[in-house]
Each structure stands twice: as structure tokens, then as C-alpha cells.
Design brief:
Blueprint (H helix, E strand, L loop, with lengths): L6 E3 L4 H11 L3 E4 L5 H6 L7 E4 L9 E4 L2 E5 L4 H6 L1 H6 L1 H6 L6 H6 L2 H7 L5 H9 L2 E6 L2 E6 H4 E3 L2 E2 L6 E8 L4 E9 L9 E9 L5 E9 L6 E2 L1 H7 L9 H10 L12 H25 L5
Parallel strand pairs: 1-3, 2-3
Antiparallel strand pairs: 4-5, 5-10, 6-7, 6-10, 8-9, 11-12, 12-13, 13-14
Helix pairs in contact: 10-11, 11-12
The structure holds flavin-adenine dinucleotide.
Amino acid sequence: MKAAPFAYHRPTSVADAVALLGEYGDDAKILAGGQSLVPMLAMRLTHFDNLIDISRVSELNNIDRVGDQVRIGAATPHAFVGLDDEVAESVPLLTLATPHIGHFQIRTRGTLGGAIAHADPAAEYAAVAIALGATIEATSARGVREIPATEFFTGLWETALASDEILTAVRFPVWSGRCGFAVQEFARRHGDFAIAGAVVGIQLDGGDRVTRCGIGLLGLGSTPLRATPAEAAALRQPVDAITPEEIGRLAVSELADIPTDLQGTSEYRARVGATMVARAWKQARTQATEGAIDA
Ligand code: FAD
């Protein structure tokens, strides 16, 4: 099947892209790497009269350290994020998450902004943004709006972006000190979206007390989620006071709409999710306490 006809626009600046979005409104859609949008157009699951391709907007393709944050332009491909030294040093959870996204070919075309704007419940970068407390920059003719990642994902494939806004960058806070990070997920085939998974960040003080922690959940709701009850139980406690299994149990304990589909029932997903959280917590804890990664 082929996509229905559309007009193709290829701006070279954010200002031009925003102007096009303002002009065409709901009849226009941003095209980034095309790894999610193009299949949907080709299968005629969606249609837009105008596609605004941002792949030639060079100001959206960059990675910069800005104070205690790393700012990543929306059109930066997954592969660049995964290979970047500054990201590996300052936001290692992104580096760990990248190989889990689809296949190599998808990672060379797909973009960080596209993965977050698409808002799939099993998107790794979305879960990382939630877990670390990232900030999303949305640009329109009205200016730049900052949206906390925890408020960005509003429903299945829905976000807080207005129809005239472009996601221009995501700013990830740099967690420093005694930290550990881990990503664990389960998919039946390599490259598939995870059935369930978890991304974890832990920061400890000198006495092994948890000073900061973030747990992002994949595939366990209609949006990527933050495991707030598990985080609250661990925060300010000695890291060994609570077992990884208990953290896993708490992480899924209050989830209201775990999906059931051909991949598994909600009960199955909850069990897999709890196990993934427990494994990721254990791995991150080992790195934070010993500076080593326990696989
Ligand atoms: P596009 O496909 O171009 O756009 C996707 C949506 O986001 C569209 O609605 C578009 O309008 C919107 N959009 C894109 N950029 C912006 C922007 N800057 N501002 C506003 N709106 C924007 N993803 C995962 O996270 N994990 C996986 O495991 C995974 N597995 C995959 C497996 C397969 C076989 C395939 C085909 C894809 C998979 N993906 C996975 C999706 C992939 O990562 C996509 O690249 C990503 O979801 C979308 O990024 P994109 O740049 O291709 O966006």
C-alpha cells in the first residue's frame, strides 16, 4: 500500500518550520526520521495534507552540555545519541537505552525528538526522560515553552504539544556523584518494542543512603510511566534496606491500566515488569555502591 498524496515541505530553519505549522495547522505533520510516521502513512492509518520534513534543520541536530544539563536537539538521530561521548559521560542512561531501540537501520534514521513526540508507551527515550526528570522544549510562533517530561505524555501516542508546536530539544539533567544506571527489558524478538521494561537511576550519599532515584516503566500503561510508589519507598533510605524484588513489586503495585494484547495479558506484563525493575535496580545499585556493573 502507498501513502495518500501529500504536499512535502523541507524547511531549513526552525522559524520556517514553525511558520509552516502555523500556516497549515491540523492539516500538517512534522516528519523527522519517518520510522513511525511513514509506516502509518503507508498503511493509511493516518493522513496529513502537508508533511514538514525537519531533517535538514541543522539547528535541531546537536548535543551540548549546558551547565548541569545535556541539551539534545530534536532531530538528532538515535545512533548519534548512542555514540556521543558527552552523553555517555553525563547521561549514561541514554547510552544504555539506545541499543534497545529497534534495529541499527532504525536508529540511524529515527530521532530522539521523534521517539519522544511519538510517545509510544514502550519508547525507551521517553522512559529515560521521565526517570531522570528531563525538560522538553516546544517551539511555536509564540516562543519556546518548557514542559517537564512527567507532564508531557498525556495518553496513548498523545502529548502536551499543541498542533502549532515543534519539539525542538530535550534537556536531560546530569546526575553526578555516586550514581548507577541500568536498562532492562523483555521482548520476544530482538528489535521489537519491549513487552515490559524499566530504566533506573540511583544516586547515593557517602553512607549509601538513596538521595535521588528515578524508575521509568515501559509497556505497562498507555504512556511511559514513572514508578512513584517504588521511588518514594527507596528515597532517603539505606540502599540495602529494601530489596530489588520489593522495589519491583512496588513499581507495578498501583498501575491501573496495564494493557492486554497479543503479546500477553496485563497480569503477565505486570510480572515481567516487576522482574525488569528488580533486575535494573540491582544492576544500578551495584554500580552506585561499587562503581561496577553487575550484569
Ligand atoms: P517520525 O516517524 O518522523 O515521527 C513520529 C511522530 O512524531 C509523528 O507524529 C511526527 O509528527 C512526530 N514528530 C517527530 N519529530 C517531531 C518534532 N521534532 N516535533 C513534533 N513532532 C514530531 N522506538 C522505540 O522507542 N523503541 C523500540 O524498541 C522501537 N522499535 C521499533 C521497531 C521497528 C521495526 C520500527 C519500524 C520502529 C521502532 N521504533 C522504536 C520507533 C523508532 O524509534 C522511531 O524512530 C521513533 O518512534 C520516531 O522517531 P522518528 O524520528 O522516526 O519520527
